[in-house]
Amino acid sequence: MEKSKLLVKDLNLYYGANRALKDVEMEIRDKAVTALIGPSGCGKSTFLKCINRMNDLVENVRIRGQVLLDGENIYDRRVDTTLLRKKVGMVFQQPNPFPMSIYDNVAYGPRLHGVKAKQELDSIVEEALKGAAIFEEVKDRLKKPALGLSGGQQQRLCIARALAVRPEVLLMDEPTSALDPISTSKVEELMEALKKSYTVVVVTHNMQQAARVSDDTAFFLLGAVVEFGPTAALFSRPRDKRTEDYITGRFG
Amino acid sequence: MTGDTLYHKKKRPLEALLLGAVYGAASVSVLLLCGVIGYVFAKGAGTLSWSFLTTVTSALKQTVGIAGNLVNTLYIIVLTLLAATPIGVGAAIYLNEYAKPGRLVRLIEFTTETLSGIPSVLFGLFGMVFFGEVLGLGYSLLSGAFTLTLMVLPLIVRNAQEALRTVPDSYRSGALGMGASRWHMIRTILLPSAIPGILTGIILAVGRIVGESAALLFTAGSARLLPRLGGGLLENVKKLGGKALESGGTLTIELYLQMQNGKYDVAFGAGCVLIVIVLCINLWMKLLAGRWKTR
Question: What's the whole-number mean pLDDT along residues B24-53?
Fold first, then answer.
């Protein structure tokens, strides 16, 4: 757990002339949960998307600096984004299952990356659904449309879909903000379990959630990392006045 | 009675009048449509017979029939859709998924809009000169189909674009976030979700194809012959393919020519068949779209 998985060096991101990330430095530990907190528009989601290059899809974005995944710069021109995104999966704020069956949703990634054999797909799908703690709820209706599931189930299905390509890092962009409290606690429990096998980076607006689930926390403000460190320390003895103000609810 | 009570329901004569007027307008439009269809069937039903549907009008054999025109109509529909659907859907995908919003996109959208406002006889003129003479296709079903392709392209592009636009962005980022290439995402997520909209465009296109006369008269011509079949399978396939290079009039052309000659019963008979064809194709497409949605 002490080994670092991702190393972010001097990362700057510009939307046109607007500098949205400022000299971000971060060391994300392997098999740990790292939480990104901060007020809306502080750049935490933008930063998250930098880790699997989802910002490539946005127009007018320029990125300077390095993100090293196991020592390899993901912004190197030789990098294949398909391989990168296979290693670094993403779960979005709004559950976004595809309009197809539960099974096909989970099998989408493996099929994309070349798995064809029915038996192999079956076992990957089952394993992924179990990994996302939803297998028991859906095992009898794998062929039913995924859009018929409840919001919380849909989100866990999306987690299963991301797990099915066997990523090493899982990025979660406010994964519980669209869910009710019961579903939220299920997803939080899931994060605990996931960090045994994956490196998890989660953006959250919910301070208690960050405190509950994460090992490390980064506090973002206006595109810069104000404070980064072990969650327990950051929440109990913040070094920066702005961090203290934010986590005690004085602004944000 | 004092002003305190609620029991003063007022009569609002203007409201009732307007309600009556819109009901009236609605029923008139439905009745007119039913009336026209009913009239066509009343006039044409007498002409309809098995031989009318299966023979070709011939002075020599003394037969009156539209079999050749039926086949030509199917040829034109299939050939036009074969050309227009891939081009139209492809253009819509480019405009919606690849092109950066800007002047070029607006220009293409403007030209397709304009294309749909041009009278069809002008397409006929262009098709006759360009496909017929310059490309040497002469009067042929293929020349007619190419001409109609230009005409129905805007319908297909616009409907496909509309359908692609309604696919939520979260599907796109979901697929791309897993490492899908853009084309893979389009093929596996976008197109399946957009199929009902694309089919709507095709239905409208079929309507225009079946109803067209001016653009076809000078490109596909008015021949009534059936494809001459015989010989082995390969030979038949060749003959069926070769038919596309021959002249052929659709049902609408035949209807127009018979009307010109004062043969109203034959014209109405062809009209009945036309209506039935359009109805069948629409129902079939609706069924297809419905089945896609429930998947």
Answer: 90
pLDDT at position A1 = 46
How many angstroms separate the CA atoms of B21 and B27, rounded?
10
Whose tokens are 């987690």? That residue is A159
Token digits of residue B167: 């696919």
Q: Which residues does chain A have with pLDDT short of 50?
A: 1
B102 touches A at CB < 8 Å: no
Lowest model confidence (mean pLDDT) among A206-210, B21-25, B109-113:
B109-113
- Contact assessment for residue B216 and residue B148, using Cβ atoms and an 8 Å cutoff: yes
Residue A132 belongs to a domain: no
- Alpha helices (H) along A97-175: 102-112, 118-131, 135-138, 151-163
* Cα gap B61→B286, rounded to integer Å: 41
Find residue A72's DSSP bridge partners: A69
Query: How many whole angstroms separate alpha carbon A149 and alpha carbon A96?
Result: 11
B120 Cβ contact list (under 8 Å, min separation 6): B151, B212, B214, B215
Interface of A with B in 58-117 (CB under 8 A): 59, 81-86, 89-90, 92, 94, 96-100, 108-109, 112-113
Terminal C-alpha separation, chain B: 63
Fold classified for B60-294:
MetI-like fold (1.10.3720)
pTM of the model: 0.81
pLDDT-derived band of residue B251, with 50, 70 and 90 as boundaries?
Answer: confident
Q: What is the chain A residue with the closest CA to B183?
A: A112
**Residue B253 · residue B216 · CB < 8 Å:** yes
pLDDT digits (tens, 9 = 90+) for B155-179: 999 999 999 999 999 999 999 999 8
Domain that holds residue A232: 4-98+168-247
Least-confidence region, from A30-44, A72-86, B45-59, B100-114 = B45-59
Token representation of residue A2: 């002490």
SS3 string, A174-242, reads CCCCCCCHHHHHHHHHHHHHHCCCCEEEEECCCHHHHHHHCCEEEEEECCEEEEEEEHHHHHHCCCCHH
Return the H-helix or E-strand segment holding A51: none
3-state secondary structure of A116: coil
> Is A240 domain-assigned?
yes
Number of domains in chain A: 1
A109 in any annotated domain: no
Question: Is residue B215 within 8 Å of residue B146, measured between CB atoms?
Answer: no
> Tens digits of per-residue pLDDT, B202-214?
988 998 998 888 8
The answer to whether B176 contacts A108, with C-beta atoms less than 8 Å apart, is no
What is the ipTM metric for this complex?
A: 0.85
Q: CATH number for the domain including A34?
A: 3.40.50.300
The reply to whether A106 falls in a domain is no
Closest in A59, A96, A113 to B171, CB measured? A96
Q: In this model, does residue B289 exceed pLDDT 80?
A: no
Domain boundaries, chain B: 60-294
